[in-house]
Fold:
Amino acid sequence: MKVDVLLGLQWGDEGKGKVVDVLTPRYDVVARFQGGPNAGHTLEFEGQKYVLRSIPSGIFQGDKVNIIGNGVVLDPALFKAEAEALEASGHPLKERLHISKKAHLIMPTHRVLDAAYEAAKGDAKVGTTGKGIGPTYTDKISRNGIRVGDILGDFDAIYAKAKARHEEILKSMNFEYDITEIEKEWMAGIEYLRQFPLVDSEHEINDLLKAEKSVLCEGAQGTMLDIDFGSYPFVTSSNTVCAGACSGLGVAPNKIGNVYGIMKAYCTRVGSGPFPTELFDETGDKLCTLGHEFGSVTGRKRRCGWIDLVALKYSIMINGVTHLIMMKSDVLDTFETIKACVAYRINGVETENFPYSIEGEVEPIYAELPGWQCDMTKMTSENEFPEEFNNYISFLEEELEVPIKIVSVGPDRDQTIERYND
Ligand code: GDP
Ligand code: IMO
Ligand code: MG
Structure:
């Protein structure tokens, strides 16, 4: 058996949480492979809305096993708050949420370091979520990190040593902070973590595959935020791309099956960094208002613009996307004309290839298509699609050379239309 991977193709917030929830009944297991509480994955069903940060989005569908993989960075305090809220709302998870012992722990001082590094960057700040993601992955790579498995040993000494290192750095930066309260919550989070199955998830997943069980790997963030292929340095600190599922779960490359790439019918970005199709006019405001484009973790207003096919083709290439999923189609319901960026003009030269850098003068070249100007939110089958919407889909499929399997027409689980089965 192979795993399927579902990941974002833009700058995050494409709607991964919603689709993972919709697809979960087809799988035995859902596994998160990277990122941490910088993610905010929203699900809506039966009139309820949930935002998941570290817990995989398969947690609401029956008794499926959900795994937090080794590539994830986990903040025990935030994890405890998230898990307790779910349990309180009638979704028990203790036995069926497995956590890799190799996942790295986000410490209170990592959060402080995140703030300190951002402050030191001044105008060049990344606009991080402030959750300590960068400093935690930095410690992982520099071999100074602490891991979930460490809580099973002499944890106090390991923690004290790592904290002392951070304190030295913060002192040298003259950065003032007080972690007394969050440290208490954090320690309570460590105790709470002990109640969950702490596992060797690479063994668990490969044993499941051998036993013909099906696994869906859930990505966080999006390809344009990938540490290697995103708009560096305005990126997150992990590999958000398909290869991240291999390293973040211990799944071999030849065990990757379908790759579901998710995109919005337009494009958004939150935080700093270049965004070639960003709109600064009333069309951008309209996308923001109709799409409720405010961050699910930080509440920050998301920057909005037209769909960018140059960036999407790049993302599809890097990830080996086999199926596309288009979200938030309904947000375009009232637009008379829809634009799609088909090329960039850089220093007077047109290109369809995603360049080394998209900072500076990148002029998007647009194709224009007629809008459908009707309400799609209650549609339940492809047969109801207006002609203009079908044209938009055909245009995108032709440009991107990958079929659009699923179309989403609203935030609810039920507002999802599957165009074909394979
Ligand atoms: P994720 O991080 O990729 O899981 O996406 P987020 O949850 O951060 O952002 C997606 C937002 O769009 C959430 O508020 C969803 O409830 C909402 N959403 C998802 N699909 C649709 C859709 O098809 N139409 C509309 N209007 N909203 C959607
Ligand atoms: P989901 O999984 C959108 C952005 C931040 C910032 C940059 C680095 O919900 O799609 P970090 O805290 O990771 O060091 O911030 O990445 N970012 C996201 N943007 N969706 C996300 O996650 C994001 N996670 C991080 O805004 O620009
Ligand atoms: Mg999100």
Notes: Residues 41 and 52 are 5 Å apart (CA to CA).
